[in-house]
Design brief:
Layout: E1 2-4, E2 10-12, E3 18-21, H1 23-36, H2 41-56, H3 65-72, E4 84-89, E5 92-100, H4 102-120, E6 122-130, H5 136-144, E7 149-155, E8 175-179, E9 186-190, H6 197-206, E10 215-216, H7 226-229, E11 233-234, H8 240-255, H9 258-262, E12 269-275, H10 285-298, H11 314-326, E13 328-331, H12 332-342
Parallel strand pairs: 5-6
Antiparallel strand pairs: 1-2, 2-3, 3-13, 4-5, 6-12, 7-8, 7-12, 8-9, 10-11
Helix pairs in contact: 1-2, 1-12, 3-12, 4-5
Length: 350
């Protein structure tokens, strides 16, 4: 059974701590909150478009809760400059993000990478002096829809402890690959942290415990208390292998200009490498062969009890279509906090 709330949305009786919003309602609420903290116009639209898409794809922490993170981040209160290219060649660009949110800076970087790759066959683009950029998959899917192959990494402020360390030295450092196929984009997106920082922040805001073995307090001691982990950090996924990937991504952040913002080699920076598959396999051969590759994987003989072999991104795309019809479930407390911000108030989200 469902009922109408004062916000005009529906309460799902099976989830009393959540509100069900249509994509339009979610966008309007997020837009009002973003405008209240200084982001408006095209920048707000770009940001909200991704946040709503993240929710549609089933990523609870990466949707509207990220507006709370933006609103409470010290960088949001600091002066911003227009995103600009500071160094450029026909196949590359280094971008000053101007202290703009990464949803905007990385979006502009992706646009530049698309244009250059279409003109020159490939492109390398880096962006620095920014912060939260959301899901790498969002930008990569945009690039792949233009018929291009994409590789995208995001280096970030230290939140992850190297194995054996007592303090964080690496960002959560996601890595993403994208490939065009005759049946649509294929995107492989993964964080190299065992628990994404946005999830830590949401758990702390809601008072939910974290899983065992992923979080550490400020003394480097294991903890499941998200509020204590916020002062410490999390482990990389997969032990030394995840650590190695995270280390490499942080290094690519240096190539993307991380040090130029505040003189720190460990800081936010977004790296894109994009190639037109036509320069390697002309005549549309790559998308065709990619579709065949996916088909072969999905046609793999299955173990007993297994209904389907899925490929990366398939779950998210199905969730997106389903939630467009059924709506997005958002934590009630998140909605209440966003309404406070939209009306000029403040909340604690860190």
């Amino acid at each position: 059974m469902q009922k109408t709330t004062s916000f005009g949305t529906l309460l799902d009786a099976d989830h009393p701590d959540f509100l069900r919003l249509t994509p339009q309602e979610a966008a309007e609420l997020g837009q009002r909150a973003l405008e209240a903290v200084g982001y408006s116009g095209e920048d707000a639209r770009i940001t909200i478009d991704q946040l709503v898409d993240n929710s549609l794809c089933g990523y609870r922490f990466a949707g509207l809760p990220r507006v709370l993170a933006i609103a409470t981040d010290v960088k949001t209160k600091q002066a911003r400059r227009p995103v600009s290219i500071v160094r450029e060649t026909p196949v590359s660009a280094l971008i000053d993000g101007g202290n703009n949110i990464g949803y905007v800076a990385a979006y502009r970087a992706a646009e530049i990478a698309i244009k250059k790759a279409k003109t020159s066959g490939m492109a390398t683009v880096g962006a620095y002096d920014s912060y939260y950029s959301g899901r790498n998959a969002y930008f990569v899917e945009k690039i792949v829809k233009e018929g291009l192959v994409a590789f995208h990494t995001s280096a970030a402020f230290p939140r992850v402890l190297p194995p054996g360390a007592a303090k964080p030295m690496l960002g959560t450092n996601p890595i993403c690959f994208g490939f065009p196929s005759d049946n649509g984009p294929v995107v492989v997106d993964m964080g190299t942290a065992s628990f994404m920082w946005g999830e830590v922040m949401l758990h702390a805001h809601l008072g939910e415990p974290m899983p065992e073995g992923v979080g550490f307090d400020e003394q480097g001691r294991p903890s499941t208390d998200a509020s204590k982990v916020l002062k410490g950090g999390v482990a990389p996924f997969g032990g030394h292998k995840g650590y190695g990937l995270s280390f490499a991504i942080q290094a690519l952040g240096i190539l993307a200009g991380a040090h130029l913002a505040k003189g720190q080699v460990r800081d936010y920076a977004f790296f894109f490498w994009v190639v037109d598959p036509e320069i390697m396999l002309p005549g549309g051969e790559f998308p065709k062969q990619m579709a065949e590759y996916v088909k072969q994987i999905k046609d793999t003989p299955k173990q007993p009890g297994v209904e389907e072999i899925r490929i990366p991104s398939e779950r998210a795309y199905r969730e997106r279509e389903r939630r467009r019809k059924e709506g997005i479930l958002v934590d009630r407390k998140v909605v209440e906090s966003l309404k406070i911000i939209a009306h000029g108030g403040s909340v604690n989200y860190q």
